Amino acid sequence: MVNTLLVVVVCLGCAIVVWKSLGYTPTTGIFVLLLWNVIYPYWWALIRHGKINELYRSGRIAEQPGESPLNTLLEVADDSMNDGLTNTTVTFGLFILAVVLWKTNHP
What we know:
The protein is an all-alpha fold. Helices cover 83% and strands 0% of the residues.
């Protein structure tokens, strides 16, 4: 849920900055590349979470006790996907903030 909120905020921020730059500039190209680096990992994480949910719903993965090896493995996979998405999104958000601050101070 947090990653979804971060991705939405970053996408809206990117859209606003690109919109205000009035057309295609070198900055717009950079934003498109960086936005791809946020959206693409997020999309794949959703697909991977879907595969795990599908295995769980089909009964091939059953609910495990808290300390089972399978539960530990799933927690590690979930944490690593979420951490990667959070780091990528926050880094891109900080980049957008830096560009906005630079443009407002150097018109």
